[in-house]
Design a protein that fits this description.
Elements: H1 2-6, H2 22-31, H3 34-41, H4 45-59, H5 69-77
């Protein structure tokens, strides 16, 4: 496998090339195709939004200073 990957003819494609910020990425996951949030976070959008709602009930309605609660949850859940 190592020889295959290091061969000059083997096509290597970058994976994490998004120009979106973390908050924009989370917004795209929530508003985008329903399978994408499942593949990235391991839960459906309605479950993610319910999870965020429950976190807000526990922590209060205000977002932290720099990183939104949605973004923090997505970072935690990202696989």
């Amino acid at each position: 496998a190592t020889q295959l990957y290091t061969a000059s003819w083997y096509w290597k494609q970058p994976y994490h090339t998004s120009t979106l910020t973390g908050a924009q990425w989370v917004k795209e996951l929530v508003n985008g195709h329903y399978d994408r949030i499942w593949s990235e976070l391991g839960m459906r959008v309605h479950v993610f939004l319910t999870f965020i709602h429950e976190l807000r009930v526990v922590t209060g309605p205000e977002d932290p200073k720099y990183v939104t609660l949605e973004e923090q949850a997505a970072i935690f859940l990202y696989m």
